[in-house]
Amino acid sequence: MQLLLEKIKNESIVVSEQILRVDSFLNHIIDPEVMVEIGREFAQRFRGAQINKVLTVEASGIAVGLTTAMALDVPLLFAKKRKPTTLDQQCYQSHIYSFTKNESVDIFVAKEYLTASDRVLIVDDFLARGEALKGLANLVEQAGAHLVGVGIVIEKAFQGGGKLLRESGVRIESLIKVNSLEGGKLHFE
Ligand code: G4P
Ligand code: NA
Ligand code: NA
Asked: Which residues are involved in binding xanthine (predicted)?
């Protein structure tokens, strides 16, 4: 995780005690090499878990999801933040409230793409209070699929989402854990 660590140390910007900006390689410009490294790492950590589908939510999760799916040699499914209007597709729907953005969104996946025979790895760029993750896990549950685990690029451990979800028995692998952003600085675990 050499490259990812370097990028975070050199290019991330502490915006407040809650928010870390990583626009220069993850959230606005996407660095393909970093994404490939991330995908390989997730694949390695979950190898042998018989995952057959990677699941994320648009938009920022897609890049990470794609390289992970490539490394595992499985498809990537991304939840949409708008109900697909194409055809009258039957969808699973879940509600997410974002504390970070102070807004709610519904996320959707078509029922035909998530089924009871799936063994799913969820990936996302950030884990904060875990609302997005809970929404994605809820889609998996609705489909009767099996949630194998979760891969997160940057976990802000001080916001509690990871703790909550681990206590409920979900395996979460975070590549970078940040314990605080106090004093405008990154404090890694
Ligand atoms: P929350 O429950 O505390 O709101 O956090 P959640 O994990 O649900 O994240 C909400 C959105 O905010 C997500 O993006 C997430 O990636 C982003 N986010 C949370 N904390 C940070 C942070 O410290 N830095 C950055 N850069 N992003 C953060 P989203 O709504 O899914 O939007 P998109 O970017 O994927 O389109
Ligand atoms: Na995200
Ligand atoms: Na984001």
From this structure: 20, 27, 156
